[in-house]
């Protein structure tokens, strides 16, 4: 017999959610998050620390909450090539970045989901709260508990139907639902509440795929070393020692996701809650290095990249340029825009431009940067000059990266 909960499931699926599962609120395993914070893996995302208490107790967010409805949005477009940069040497964008910002496109569906909850269960607006990414909710943990998938060694919620390509959202509610089954009930290792790696077996491809060694323990990502953090969340200078391994990643990183064998089950999404902006990956590095505020606003309107703001985009483009150009050759064409950025009003942009010019031009960099250096007064940028004078020369001529 079709229950009201079945009706709700169908109505939410019709709104565009590819997975709809239910969990009961209850004890939250705290060890994973506490250990992550204790190691400093949150980098300068101080909000992760401030909200930790709430993340571990949904009653602090919605007193009387009985259930969590966990929702997945499949963002695999069925075509591996569609995300690849158009030309070798072009920047690489995280898969989710070449869409309209999913926070904006999923939110209206969450509002509509709330209305369905009101209609079918007589819930009032104060009886539920919905989140997509930004709320104080451990979305992957709840998704695991609701049986959307398992927590992989790369830290991701991995689905048996969609691989690593689910975005998550959740509705915390006072309505009581029957819980869906988790994937398997027994813990992987004794004492491992988090059940990390439940269906990974012996596979460690994701850990090996990470160029910056950001996964020190299965399931825990050290944001300080993660390219995603460095290129999206970090608001300041990117540590010099990480820059070469960032490679061509301009915004975010999917390497540990893409390495996962469970992706073979991924299927092309319906795309109801997504709006493709694949044109973004056509932008050349040269264009990005020359981006003006007006063009930035125009090109990235509505995408997650708009949150980065222009100076951080230029910072990231400098890092990619330094890496693309480290071998010399045609990349010398990047030197002219980089020299313009070496006198940019933002110290962060100037510092990374200086680094990139050294990576590309090697011993000629000092001469090229002479005027910019004479005018420089900012200590952080002067430090870049001091460091790269030795390090830039060494990396250009020894690693051949
Ligand atoms: C902070 C953050 C980051 C940080 C830190 C990443 C990290 N691994 O913690 C940075 C900036 C590096 C990052 C990067 C990325 N992120 Co991010 N990020 C978040 C955010 C806001 C919080 C994650 C968090 O709490 N981390 C702390 C760790 C300790 O918690 P955790 O990963 O959830 O795992 C613990 C708990 O789940 C707990 N646990 C275990 N069992 C249970 C059971 C229950 C009931 C509960 C409650 C908890 C629990 O133990 C686990 C540890 O052992 C979430 C959104 C959200 N509100 O949850 C998105 C989120 C995790 N990110 C997401 C994405 C897509 C990415 C990127 C792929 C983006 C990109 N392409 O560049 C990368 C992937 C990097 C990676 N391998 O994780 C998606 C992941 C979707 C999925 N299928 O897993 C999320 C869920 C956003 C969303 N709404 O879709 N991210
Ligand atoms: S997203 Fe990239 S840098 Fe971050 S842990 Fe995964 S592979 Fe490493």
Bound molecules: cobalamin, iron/sulfur cluster
Tell me the fraction of residues in β-strands, as a range. 5-15%
Number of DSSP strand runs: 8
Mean pLDDT: 92
Count every helix, treating DSSP H or I runs of 4 or more residues as helices.
18
Order of helices and strands: HEHHHEEHEHEEEHHHEHHHHHHHHH
What is the structural class? alpha+beta
For the record, give the distance between the C-alpha atoms at the N and C termini, rounded to a whole number: 62 Å
Short description:
The chain contains 18 helices and 8 strands. The strands form 3 sheets. It has a 4-stranded antiparallel β-sheet, sandwiched between helices. Strands 3-8 form a two-stranded parallel sheet. Strands 5-6 form a two-stranded antiparallel ribbon. The longest helix has 20 residues.
């Amino acid at each position: 017999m079709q229950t009201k909960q079945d009706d709700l499931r169908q109505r939410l699926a019709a709104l565009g959610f590819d997975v709809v599962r239910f969990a009961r609120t209850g004890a939250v395993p705290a060890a994973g998050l506490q250990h992550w914070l204790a190691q400093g893996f949150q980098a300068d995302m101080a909000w992760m620390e401030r909200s930790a208490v709430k993340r571990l107790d949904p009653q602090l967010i919605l007193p009387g909450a009985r259930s969590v409805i966990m929702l997945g949005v499949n963002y695999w477009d069925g075509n591996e090539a569609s995300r690849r940069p158009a030309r070798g040497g072009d920047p690489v964008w995280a898969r989710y970045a070449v869409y309209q910002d999913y926070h904006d496109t999923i939110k209206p569906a969450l509002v509509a989901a709330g209305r369905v909850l009101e209609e079918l269960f007589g819930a009032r607006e104060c009886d539920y709260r919905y989140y997509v990414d930004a709320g104080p909710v451990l979305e992957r943990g709840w998704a695991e508990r609701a049986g959307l998938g398992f927590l992989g060694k790369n830290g991701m919620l991995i689905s048996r139907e969609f691989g690593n390509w689910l975005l998550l959202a959740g509705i915390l509610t006072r309505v009581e639902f029957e819980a869906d089954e988790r994937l398997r009930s027994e813990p992987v290792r004794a004492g491992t509440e988090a059940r990390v790696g439940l269906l990974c077996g012996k596979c460690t491809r994701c850990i090996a795929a990470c160029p910056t060694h950001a996964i020190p323990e299965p399931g825990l990502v050290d944001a300080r070393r993660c390219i995603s953090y460095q290129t999206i969340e970090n608001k300041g200078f990117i540590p010099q020692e990480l820059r070469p391994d960032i490679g061509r990643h301009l915004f975010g990183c999917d390497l540990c996701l893409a390495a996962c064998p469970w992706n073979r089950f991924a299927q092309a999404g319906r795309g109801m809650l997504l709006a493709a902006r694949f044109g973004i990956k056509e932008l050349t590095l040269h264009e990005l290095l020359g981006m003006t505020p007006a063009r930035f606003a125009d090109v990235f309107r509505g995408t997650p990249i708009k949150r980065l703001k222009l100076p951080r985009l230029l910072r990231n483009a400098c890092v990619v340029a330094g890496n693309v150009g480290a071998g010399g050759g045609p990349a010398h064409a990047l030197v002219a825009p980089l020299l313009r950025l070496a006198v940019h009003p933002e110290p962060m942009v100037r510092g990374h431009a200086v680094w990139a010019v050294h990576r590309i031009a090697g011993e000629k960099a000092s001469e090229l940067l002479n005027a910019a250096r004479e005018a420089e007064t900012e200590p952080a940028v002067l430090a870049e000059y001091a460091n790269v004078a030795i390090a830039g020369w060494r990396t250009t001529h020894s690693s051949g990266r």
